[in-house]
């Protein structure tokens, strides 16, 4: 791993003369300049997340200012993707020559996970003391000195206290809490030691081994904490990462390993913020809500009108309107509450702007309506444009009479043509995907040519597994119902509350159907659909059989079912099943296959149209390894013995198929065995 | 020097140096250091340099008015020292006829030429700034010395916030006389609690009330004594938020309002409404973040730092050079600041 160290500016050497910081215990911090995920694509294909403007100031500046004002003397910014841009930025910014502070960049081009980055830092031997490990997209005004002191005393008491994690209290549905962060944190109520940390949407139960309670007589399980991604670490943390080369992430691997390890006696602690603010810009929804928090001044003194970077000139007027000098408001334009407008921007007559952030040197025409949007520097918005809850990156343009819908991202320099209406949640970018070594999944996230109206330039970008700036209406329902089930499912506290099973089941079925349909329509990866269904399965505490039963009807859906011939119908069904069988086979296992067949029978009973197609359904399921022949035989036997004649209808239907199966089995016993293995 | 300035600006930005008194002293010291270390040819050059530095400092924290005040005081000292030098020079050079000439003709201040260089100018400017720093140091004592004239036995005084000047003032009076103090708690910072604690420790009979009780309690108060963040050119105040309510309540009950302040808080700017020189703090001071989500969509939360109190609500200023009427403030301004030392941005 090539780690090059670069000292930017002359900040390092003659620093400690004016600030009263003792040089022997110089405080160090490591800033991870890469997020190692794709939450902000396609924007982050061209610019690293840390340099994206948050209320018109790059994210990295918030993090660095936070560290610098806490008395950190040496900051290492570790960058991977777009490292040149970050290096260039730091070199040209005021960070390179601030008294009492040295900001150095480290580049690890090959790093693809946090673990790789930490190993690279370990191998560069720059960290000697306790240090602050922070992501380059954290905004905070917390008093780090206090947390550092607490970490130090804990460590003096017990050498094994190697890390203190910072949390902020907020209710589970708080907007600043990322939907990805669904952590249940177990804390010893006396020592504040971290006992369990579970961050997964799938698991709805927390397991604590009995032995935990021997050591910790009282344990708090908390679901109201935001993980701020500010960790105060001892050098051992880096060493541990170096020893365990398979650690990729701090949260997922490292913490889990330390907590469950019986060999190592290391301890992790927690620090919950009181009246201070800290949050990470993790994805688009948190970008939205942290921006709001800044405008509402929760981050005070890190607010626009404090101009902490010394290169801005914001002033605050009533209703949380922040304007820089040189803003031109023409005629009768209306600037509503919670708005930020950068230097040199011009807003045309009769335009209406509210709840939005406008960057520098933007030109906004007449009769424009912008609500709840983020317009970065140098954008051009022509007359009669409407923009609602969207992001327009630097240099993007919206030509006359165009409309940009909710949740859209118009990436750098893209142009929306005349009279064009950009549909909701569309992402448009100019980025050309010319890396040949991209994996399969990347192709899914590549640009698709799209017509963007007259003079429009850009490609539509389809992304997978990404949270949107504002919730989609259907997704918001999902979230709501999820949080509903959360309150019921918090088994830790209340056992006696059990939701209405029937409605729960119906909800589950409806949601799985919705997921599969959406997945097919948006051409998501089958694995992702699988994952989502799996998530729902855990959320509703359902078995695999229920999943299968819920998924199948969607696959069987045939357009104009009443008007087509049986042959056409069966061929469509067969095609569908073979295409999406992968989703089904994930949930299929031997024990439930028999029940599944009965469920199919039930389904056909309810839907007359499918009665005729029963054999072909069974056949294609068998061919795609969803159902094994044993299950089919077993079902045949059971139905045979059934006295109710009605049920024999289906058996007779597929007698031919079963006979064929039987013959095949008798012919080749050996192959059969192999088949069985595959079914497992 | 540049590095030191940069550090000071950082301290101002991050509010590690905060509070009018601390900021003023630090500013004066930084300027003294600058004048003694930096190279300059003559008074004219120095004035330009100080103005440039001053602009940077003011921009760092535009609402700490005393930065600008101290800079203007320093500029005034430079001009004054230069003029005395020039006068003594001309006096020794020319005959008494010239003196008569200056007495008779009016000299436009814009015409004065500051470009002559005097070897002893630097030393006398440094002396002048040292005097200024001495004045700042002795300020609390000087204000407190006048306490006996204003507080009489068995009076009830109401105060708000936490001002060192007011605290010293009351304590000084408390040494000689017996009287009661009602402290307003001043939410959300609750600085009034600190004042109450400190006064009761000094043996003064202290009552702590909530902000909402101000009006009800006012009827039994003899005098309101408060501190301020700045005194504007018209005699109005920019003071901690909550002061306006207090002042209006006092006016209603015809209770005199006395403002204790050092001269360095005198500011040649005009505030014409509540918003001109105001800032907002974090709503986190009175609202829990974890609860805020339910409020913020429809409820706005503001936490203003200052109040503007118009001059007609103030009865008396007690400064380190004695008591003054609000209407006299403009005169004091002329005595301590030069009208040419205005920084463009402040003119708004």
UniProtKB/TrEMBL annotation, chain A:
Subcellular location: Cytoplasm, Cytosol
Alphabetical list of PROSITE patterns matching this protein: W2
Positions of the W2 domain: 502-671
Pfam families reported for this sequence: LbH_EIF2B, NTP_transferase, W2
InterPro entries (UniProt xref): ARM-type_fold (IPR016024), eIF-2B_epsilon_N (IPR035543), eIF2B_epsilon (IPR051956), LbH_EIF2B3/5 (IPR056764), NTP_transferase_dom (IPR005835), Nucleotide-diphossugar_trans (IPR029044), Trimer_LpxA-like_sf (IPR011004), W2_domain (IPR003307)
Entries under SMART domains matching the protein: eIF5C (SM00515)
Record's GO cellular component terms: cytosol; eukaryotic translation initiation factor 2B complex
Alphabetized GO MF terms: guanyl-nucleotide exchange factor activity; translation initiation factor activity; translation initiation factor binding
Keywords: Cytoplasm, Initiation factor, Protein biosynthesis
Coiled-coil region: none
Predominant localisation class: cytoplasm
Family, per entry: Belongs to the eIF-2B gamma/epsilon subunits family.
Subunit structure: Component of the translation initiation factor 2B (eIF2B) complex which is a heterodecamer of two sets of five different subunits: alpha, beta, gamma, delta and epsilon. Subunits alpha, beta and delta comprise a regulatory subcomplex and subunits epsilon and gamma comprise a catalytic subcomplex. Within the complex, the hexameric regulatory complex resides at the center, with the two heterodimeric catalytic subcomplexes bound on opposite sides.
UniProt-recorded name of the protein: Translation initiation factor eIF2B subunit epsilon
From TrEMBL, chain B:
Name of this chain's protein: Translation initiation factor eIF2B subunit beta
GO cellular component: a single term: eukaryotic translation initiation factor 2B complex
Sequence similarity: Belongs to the eIF-2B alpha/beta/delta subunits family.
Annotated localization: Cytoplasm, Cytosol
Record bears the keyword Protein biosynthesis: yes
UniProt keyword annotation of Cytoplasm present: yes
InterPro entries with a match to the protein in the record: eIF2B_beta_subunit (IPR051855), IF-2B-related (IPR000649), IF_2B-like_C (IPR042529), NagB/RpiA_transferase-like (IPR037171)
Recorded superkingdom: Eukaryota
Alphabetical keyword list: Cytoplasm, Initiation factor, Protein biosynthesis
Quaternary context: Component of the translation initiation factor 2B (eIF2B) complex which is a heterodecamer of two sets of five different subunits: alpha, beta, gamma, delta and epsilon. Subunits alpha, beta and delta comprise a regulatory subcomplex and subunits epsilon and gamma comprise a catalytic subcomplex. Within the complex, the hexameric regulatory complex resides at the center, with the two heterodimeric catalytic subcomplexes bound on opposite sides.
Listed PANTHER family: TRANSLATION INITIATION FACTOR EIF-2B SUBUNIT BETA
One Gene Ontology molecular-function label: translation initiation factor activity
Signal peptide: none
